[in-house]
Specification:
Keywords: Membrane, Transmembrane, Transmembrane helix. It comes from Musa balbisiana. It is found in: Membrane. By secondary structure, the protein is of the alpha+beta class. It has 2 domains: about 10-45; about 50-195, Immunoglobulin-like (Sandwich), CATH 2.60.40. The chain has 2 helices and 9 strands, in the order H-E-E-E-E-E-E-E-H-E-E. The strands form 2 sheets. Strands 3, 4, 5, 8 and 9 form a 5-stranded antiparallel sheet that branches. It is elongated, with a radius of gyration of 29 Å. The termini are far apart.
Length: about 200
């Protein structure tokens, strides 16, 4: 006579239950974090801090026909914080001035804090050591002097961070790269427009 045979259901391994619980917790944490970040963004509406060159002056240029270049220059670099509700910190500030690909001067600054909706000005007054130019750079300098416009290139970067309260902190990296053109006659900057701000 046929018999009905029943099987007991398999029990789920406790490790699988643990894994499911951990995944549920992580998913909940990600959702909560996303909500918190969105709320913070809507409240603070953060803007990326940036750096810009506010003033540049070629105070003196000494060029030897043998190819030695020596300059004195003034640069005012401004650290800008356009956030109305958060302070901004700037660190690892570094700028490199070049002529025709040749390093002329490297400028640095200590870490600094900028108040809400404010700025901090870095005033550089420096003199380079005599710098030997290669043949192409010598030709470029001679052409520049004949035309009356001496071109340099400025590259810079900074690590920035805006802070709200004691625990909330967001980090950015900002860069600038721009030409600095000077009148050979009086050393004034021509059409100065140098900033790391996104356009």
């Amino acid at each position: 006579m046929p018999k009905l045979i029943t099987r007991q259901g398999r029990r789920t391994n406790p490790l699988i239950w643990m894994l499911a619980i951990v995944c549920a917790i992580l998913a909940t944490a990600v959702i909560i974090t996303g909500i918190v970040v969105f709320v913070i963004y809507m409240v603070y509406k953060p803007k990326m801090p940036y750096i810009k060159v506010a003033y540049a002056q070629l105070n003196h240029l000494d060029y030897d026909p043998s190819g030695l270049l020596k300059i004195q220059m003034s640069l005012d670099v401004v650290a800008e914080n356009d956030n109305n509700k958060a302070r901004a910190g700037f660190s690892d500030l570094s700028f490199l001035l070049r002529f025709h690909g040749i390093d002329v001067a490297e400028l640095r600054a200590d870490p600094l804090d900028v108040a809400k909706n404010s700025s901090f000005e870095l005033n550089y007054r420096f003199q380079s050591s005599p710098i030997p130019l290669d043949k192409k750079a010598m030709e470029a300098m001679e052409v520049a002097l004949r035309r009356g416009v001496v071109p340099f290139d400025l590259d810079g970067h900074a690590s920035t961070r805006w802070r709200a309260g004691l625990f909330l902190s967001v980090r950015f990296r900002t860069h600038l790269s721009c030409p600095l053109n000077f009148s050979a006659r009086n050393g004034s900057a021509i059409d100065l427009d140098c900033s790391s701000k996104s356009r």
